[in-house]
Design a protein that fits this description.
five-stranded antiparallel beta sheet; elongated; five-stranded mixed beta sheet; 361 residues; single chain; alpha+beta
Amino acid sequence: KYAKTIGYPVVVKPLDGSMGRGVFVNIKNKKELKEVIAHYNTKLSYKRFLIEKHYFGKEYRFYVVGNKVASIIHRIPANVICDGQRTIEQLIKIKNEQRKSNPYLASKPIKVDYEVETMLKNQNLKLTSIPKENEQIFLRQLSNLSAGGDPIDCTNEITSEVKQLAIDTLKSLPNIPHAGVDIIVNPKDPKKGVVLEVNATAEISFHSYPLSGEIHDVPKAIIDYYFPETANQARTQYYFDYNSLLPPLKTHAVDKIEVNQAPMGKLYGVRYEVIGSLGKTRYMSWIRRQALTDQLSGYIKKINDKKMLVYVYSTDESAVLEFKKKCQRGSKRSKVELVTSKVLDLKHSKYVKLGFRMYTK
């Protein structure tokens, strides 16, 4: 009755779902709606669901931070481009292999399920069908990337009016400072759109890994929002291991952990190759202590018992170069025969982990 009141087509989605699971769109009539509800009752565990009006047009994820749109991604539903030779099932396998090269999409393959089979059926197709060359076959109507969709950056293509709609939507929820806002842009008027939902805990990774378009730094926008005093400062090339700080906090072994200020300035790095009778770990432990004493970051890597590589980094060039003497001296039980050095070419994109580590393999 409600679907008839708001008018078909409609959307069905679980009341407490996430990642697009259990969402069915463009349900055209009562018969299709009954089939979806029957699927809910027999195949899905959701007890409550919503019925909403379906709107046509391209869907976009706006990531809004404060009063600014940081990034906009157009999510294209799962699809394959046909070559006129392979079946749809074969093309899905090929595309899943291609998705593995994208850090975000690698763990999100296109899975053949009830929705995919229904979508193909509505196009008079099967998994064994071989469509014409260059024909794009959509496998889902749902555009979620977790369901096999493609992320395309469109930040510079959307009108200012729709961007303001996303910002105003977030403002209507004053306790949420940043979020993902899903909007369908009116296909007849690019200055208008319909808000689907607001995701308070939206993923931000795919904004950094679009399949095409410019990359927009959403993490930076969020950090600048919370720490405006550092928004225009130069970035350090150091980072610390955030995950290593969590266990003592979670177990209440400590109440507070303070991380030292990361060094600023140009970063220098040298790789030292050490040859000699170095033992199993004695030389490595000794080098680690010396590096930490000199406030150098980096690591030592064991190639074998007679060869090790020492990487040291610092904003103090002289400290990095002087460390060769300590590599030559070595621990009491080790005997260093030869130390060669190579100055590392550190581009701006090179980041170094604070501290000094040992790798035995």
